[in-house]
Specification:
Pfam families: DUF150_C, RimP_N. Keywords: Cytoplasm, Ribosome biogenesis. InterPro entries: Ribosome_maturation_RimP, RimP_C, RimP_C_sf, RimP_N, RimP_N_sf. With 159 residues, the protein is α+β, with helices and mostly antiparallel strands. The protein has two domains: 83 residues, RimP-like superfamily, N-terminal (GMP Synthetase, Chain A, domain 3), CATH 3.30.300.70; 60 residues, Ribosome maturation factor RimP, C-terminal domain (SH3 type barrels, Roll), CATH 2.30.30.180. The chain is 26% helix and 40% strand. It contains three helices and eight strands; from the N terminus they run αββαβαβββββ. The strands form two sheets. A five-stranded antiparallel beta sheet has the order 7-6-5-4-8. Strand 6 and strand 7 form a beta hairpin. The longest helix is centred in the first third of the chain and has 18 residues. It is elongated and about 55 Å long. The termini are far apart.
Length: 159
Amino acid sequence: MAKKKIKEIIEEIAFDFMTDNGLELYNVEFLKEGRDWFLRVYIDKQEAAEDDYVDTDDCEKVSRFLSEKLDELDPIEQNYYLEVSSPGMDRELLTPKHFEKFTGKLVEVKLYKGVDGKKLYEGVLVGLVDGNVVIKDEDDKELMFPLDQVAKTNLAVVF
């Protein structure tokens, strides 16, 4: 089964349940590791306050729901392990919605190829603008990186 289709199936069957529980689907991965397949579902709070995170009860609730629905529909041919978790504090920003949601937050931008001898930049996310990841560095200088040159953009974890 195509990975894209699995993601669409999960989005379709989980949408109402997630919405009713104040949650949203952050990402879905269907991967083979060794000889085992893993269906990883990452969930987040819809409109989370600064200190409001997905907890184990949320993950368990979604896991039970998805497990029951997936057993009922049986859309995946091979055996797999279902894992439901938070995307984590250092979550990768994957979609335009993620970039919009985390505008104003501190991020790390990792590049495929170095610019001015650096592959890692940190700054406050301005947003995803015309296909570019835009941040402001510590000197309040705006830096722009074409999306096709960005390996990853993650929220920075500050303690």
